[in-house]
Amino acid sequence: MIFVLYREHCERKKNFGRTEVIDNTLNPDFVRKFVLDYFFEEKQNLRFDVYNVDSRSSNISKHDFLGQTFCTLGEIIGSTGSRLEKTLSGIPGKKCGAIILTAEELSNCRDIATMQLCANKLDKKDFFGKSDPFLVFYRSNEDGTFTISKGSLYHDFIGEFTTSYRELSRGQSQFNVYEVLNPKKKGKKKKYINSGTVTLLSFKVESEYTFVDFIRNPSQPTSLHYMNPYQMNTYAMALKAVGEIIQDYDSDKLFPAYGFGAKLPPDGKISHAFPLNSDTENPNCVGIEGVLEAYFQSLRTVQLYGPTNFAPVINQVARSAADVTDGSQYFVLLMITDGVISDMVQTKEAVVNAASLPMSVIIVGVGPAEFDAMEELDGDEVRVSFRGRIAERDIVQHASPCCCLSDVWGLCCHFWEKFSFD
After folding, report:
1. Which domain range does residue 36 map to?
2. 86 and 217 co-located in one domain
3. Per-residue pLDDT, 180
4. Count of structural domains within the chain
5. Residues 202, 226: one domain?
6. Which pLDDT belongs to residue 210?
7. pLDDT category, 107, cuts 50, 70, 90?
8. Are residues 384 and 260 both part of a single domain?
9. What is the pLDDT, as a whole number, of residue 400?
10. H-helix or E-strand spanning residue 116
11. Closest C-alpha among 242, 296, 299 to residue 265
12. How far is Cα 95 from Cα 67, in angstroms, rounded to an integer?
């Protein structure tokens, strides 16, 4: 038995690879792993085909088709424990069994090495001075060779040395003093020793949490949604800090609160604008404390899921703002997010449409993600546009990150100063 993985490439399914053959079993446990680049902001479609191998032919059409299933890479990563079970289909009137897919992040991707080095007695290169040295790092290719960038060839070469991650990780010692050698000088001068030395002063390795860590179950400390019994998580801190300031401008202190990006019970339907209190008829929460309570309760019932789509929740508030035509109300949408905007085109359209309505948007970014797109929505320099339509007003204000009360106050003061609420 064998299964074949296809992934979407340029709107076509491309054969990505196949597993080894497992003989004489209906419950194969395939060993081969497929290494895929994961992009949270993209929908990466996958297809898995399972075959029974009856011959040594490499032509997959020569084998018996047993079933197939479709999913996205995000579905696998976003599932509990990054483990997804899918039913196989493809043969009418026949149960084809199931396939279990698991994903794991390559552990070596998160290590960041910080080192300090110094050099001694380097060769003199400048005619009127000594040298202006700098160090360039190259990683070896699989065959042991090195690819040298063209830019480095325009400088005066002093010398080179090689080492390994394992050697560097030992830290400062007599083993981490390297002779800088110039092959040309070594070949011409019999008494040549070296062109100086480089010494490792310190070496430190730290693990950088990746986006996958931050979208995992809130019960894990690496998640930005982690419910620590002793202190509020980053989301709650931002919500409380900003919310307690802007709530003073609301008369009834009833706040409709929505989440965007989760699978909802009982059927696991994905939503990008679901009420935190689970009440679709009345999403209002009483005060910021009520919003926080609904947020924590929601974490216990939904499964966090990507991508990060802004347009649905902006349009949700815009529909409410469009119902107010007498100027008696103004709507402020506070969005707290840790992800890259996945529907930027639709979000721009939503912002342009909402700019003519009595509403504004505050976006607070938390976590380590890139927030360049949100800066683009904050039209301080260039007004947001969509298909030639320019927003009537600049209705978006962005801050990242926003966990300090003084920063929050500055953000909100700027926000109230920026817009006139008559």
Report:
1. 2-104
2. no
3. 94
4. 3
5. no
6. 61
7. low
8. yes
9. 56
10. strand 111-120
11. 299
12. 9
